[in-house]
Batch of 2 targets.
Target 1
Amino acid sequence: MKRIIIYLSILLLSLEFSFSQGYKMMGDEELNKIPLYSKQTYGFSDEIPSKYSLEKYVPPIGDQYNSGSCVGWAVSYYSMSIIYNSKFGISSSAGKYANRFDPWFLFNQITYLEDDSCHEGVLWTEIFDVSDRIGNKKMLFNPIDIDCETDWDNIRLKDVVNYTKPYRITDYEQIPPKDANSVEIIKKEIANYNYPVLIGISHYGEGLDKIGENGIFKPNYDKENYDGHAMTIVGYDDSINGGSFRVVNSWGE
């Protein structure tokens, strides 16, 4: 099977260190290990539509339940699945269900030896390093019953890696949120390259819990609350609220 090389852009919104839903904020030392976005040197002469969405490639909405696995969901389940589905033109419900990538596979490789493997958060760099080494696993591939408590001492990982390595994420870059062009860069990645963009948020208070039927998230910054959460930007629309991103979450439908 031909190896798929993945290029992901990352938007990091905070340098605070936090857990909550599982997104660990990175300090300067870790952050500096991630290359800066490189395509911006070409400018923005390309035409970008006023709205664009990768939603037709998004797998069924999932639920991380009471675990710190949001980075695994954002990277593997949503981003890897979207990129794979986009590359091969998979948009049917059955096709997207069959080709979902496992959110627990990479996450659990990092956390299973911790005292509390379900609630330990992970860094972007940790999960991308593991992805580069062993690749991503489709959910319908064995072992099919992985969760945050899976003990990998009892599973022959080398047998699994034989069919996960073709789905490696080998390259990624960061979009600095303070970059004046950050919004346009995100839109360009989505519309021009069909790539989702990972996003990390912190101090979000009760904003995510109070999203109404219109689906609009209005952050209410909470200085005392260091909650961190990872999600995936899959589209945008310049006509909504003066410009809005379409974001997919891992808290169930």
Target 2
Amino acid sequence: STDCRPLGVVPGWPLKPFHKQHPIRSGFNELRPGSLHHCIDIQAKNNALVYAIQPGNVTITVDPGNDTRIQVGNYIYWHVKPRVQVGEYVTPYQTVLGTVENAYGHICFSEVNYSGNYLNPLRPGGRALMPWSDTKAPIISPPKINPDGRVSVAVRDPQSFIQKTTYWTPDIAPAVLAYRLWGTSGSPLGPLNFALRGTQQLQWSERDSVYLPDSHGAGFTCFATKLYCPPHWDYLLAGGLAPTISDTWPQSSAGLFRLSIYAWDYAGNVSARDTWLRFSGGQLAEVHSVNKL
């Protein structure tokens, strides 16, 4: 599902300049210590003014540690020091919601539907953050093939729009990750198998089915103290939310098979990487060769 843009939204950005692109420092569903990221982080200077992009009445929530979030309509603005009151009606790009909390260097921008479920704010068909573009496709590293048919792969998504505030805009995680196995004749062995789809928020219970333990974001301390903060995203491509290769290829077959890995970003750019596998006697014997497309 892509879901529609909420009613009353005035497309733009919650920071000045309203109608020019802003850099994104982390994406939706990225792994965090206690959750899968329920927003996108928009890079900003500390104490910058924050505005709503949808009209409505204000709700304010203060989390433990005095981190404050403000909700107006379908959007939630995190790490904002309020300048509005609960119940106050705000007008997009006119009413100042508050300022970016000191030392945070970003706002966390969430979108919820009318059932309260988190959505990807950059999803196709429902995107309100405009203008926004990204011309660089994800980068897929060589996969790691396990004899039992599980496959892991590291993927990162470089961005074409980068800026420096107190740090440089980093790579983020891909939006979608999938694979397909091809037979010796070049025919597909089954459908495209999705290991990650990022339109709606994944459940915390699914984290071990998506990410390997070595996955991590850059972290708050890095962004607060360093110029460059690269994350590392290592995914369970086959054997998590997607079936293992052993569940896909014909058990009685032998020969050379092709594993195609696909990664999409939020803008729809796609990358593919091919790995040739040899099956013998019903067992995965070796990785034959790798080709990056």
